[in-house]
Amino acid sequence: MNFPFYIARRYLFSKKSHNAINIISMVSVCGVVVATIALVCTLSVYNGFSDLVSSLFSDFDPELKITPRTGKVFDPGTVAIRQVKDLPEVAVVGEVLQDNALVRYKERQNIVVVKGVDDQFSRLTHINDVLLDGEFILQDEVVNYATLGIGLAYSLGINVGFVSPLEIYAPKRDERVNMTNPATSFNLEYAYISAVFRLNQQVYDEDYMLVPISLARELFRYEKEVSALELKLVDKADVETVKKQIRSLLGEGFVVQDRFEQQEASFRMMQIEKWMTFLILSFILAIALFNVVGSLCMLMIEKQGDVQTLKNMGADNALIRQVFLFEGWMISGFGAIIGIGIGVLLCFLQQEFGLLQLGQTTDAFIINAYPVRVELGDIVAVFLTVVSIGFLSAWYPVRYLGKRWLQ
User: What is the enclosing helix (H) or strand (E) of 258?
Assistant: First the structure.
């Protein structure tokens, strides 16, 4: 066993002549343990909420989405697009035509995002799993149907089964507004409401309306153009590999996005919040490790006799400094290991039994308990952070304050 480490271990666990030193050492370890538990649990909760948001978006967003880099629409019949559709990893391809429009129902109106989709949309997404009322139907032999977000349906005062159709207005492209008769400057289409969905995401629930792509083309005056292609891959297909392959086929004129990139702003904000919280808790950890400075200072004062004995036996100042450095490192190291163990255990218990609830009322939120997911990368980051701050907190008193006592 390393000699400085052996002496440091004895100092850490042996009883000191002054009981205050034992208390300060235990307080130092407990401070590190509590801060480490907070770091592990907080990062795991952020991971859980990230998974929750990802699952909500996955009900509506496709695995891969192709959009033009410039302009609103593109021709889906080009050779490159056909090559993408023929890839063996691509299971379903859906065409989308999306733009803003004005929706009116009797005396109420709202600006909405009209998303025209084809019959493949129900296979691309889990739209049927998020319907609150009605059935997802695009059209029949007589009329077109629309599926609205719950917030939009509420603002328009409508629900499934209403006999009057929605009026959908869109300005005519490449035409000036007729000031004498503005109504002639708009295209008008009708759709009956067939279903209401809820994703618990404001951007979709309050603004989106699904209609047949044929109605969207009539409304926005397009023949065969689309604003996006949405893809579903075969089982076990690697999304990153297929995404790179599609990018190489389409070139720089198109943008290929996975689910995280489609909602990049939301996920990036969550990551920023996660690591800002990590930084704040790291400062708290640094304050807790100031106890190590006091503990080492008092220990060096108490062990001056032992230091002199070691010197008489031939130990130099470097070896004696290593003893006290190991002492400080063990305080942070043991605290980190114990804290990580307890933190992971608490996360497991929360995951299995939902000990910490979001609210007192059942089903008031999407989930009842705080979601958690432990990531190995987070555990490594927490351990390295604790050990690094612990190294600095031990190095300072030994390097500077020890000059006086190690003469």
Answer: strand 254-258
